[in-house]
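Regression check, iron/sulfur cluster case 214:
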Amino acid sequence: MSKSVKEQMQEMKEESLSCEDCEKLVRTRTQVVFGAGNPESSLVFVGEAPGENEDIQGKPFVGRAGQLLDEILKETGLLRDEIWITNIVKCRPTKLNESTGRLSNRAPLVGEIKNCQKWLEPELSLIDPTVIVCLGGPASSAIIHKGFKMTQERGQWFTDTIYAPFVIAAYHPAYVLRMHGASFDKSRQLLVDDIAAAKQKAIDEKGQPKMTLF
Ligand code: SF4
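Current build output:
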């Protein structure tokens, strides 16, 4: 009997946990943070990389940005268990903060993003989603096209990627959290709107082959 998508994803996750392809990341990570949620969902969210909380807990989007994402998912009628959430890079990229002596987050390097495609590509291929929401610029550049411009291309539908029939870019919740006052309200609302549009698109396209409910 052939293995279910859930079983295959679990095997992929277990295999990824011992990955040591990125020398710098392996030195400081606590663990590999693989995607989580429902691997049979038609709707997938892809962020940048784990941060401190994710690195400790081994789950994607569990820090402050994750809490904001949960809040917005709830507002748009979605639950984490219904969707799949992952990152383009699965180990926490860090740099040493000279003044505090502590590690802080940094953006993943091009080589790290490239290395981690060995997990992202089969992960997305196994799920075969109808809609992908790229959270932030690095995920959008990796999935939609190189040099993606969030200011100009956010909220548009892209139908020519290899990963899903419909891909949209939205602000990363961590970016929204860096805003204040009216800018925070505006960027938060745009994130709500983009996620709501993605949910609607997944519902509208439900008749497509290989489509499963959330
Ligand atoms: S970031 Fe990805 S490719 Fe690099 S060590 Fe971690 S799991 Fe492996």
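Comparison notes: The chain has a mean pLDDT of 95. The first strand starts at residue 36 and ends at 37. No diff flagged against the previous build.
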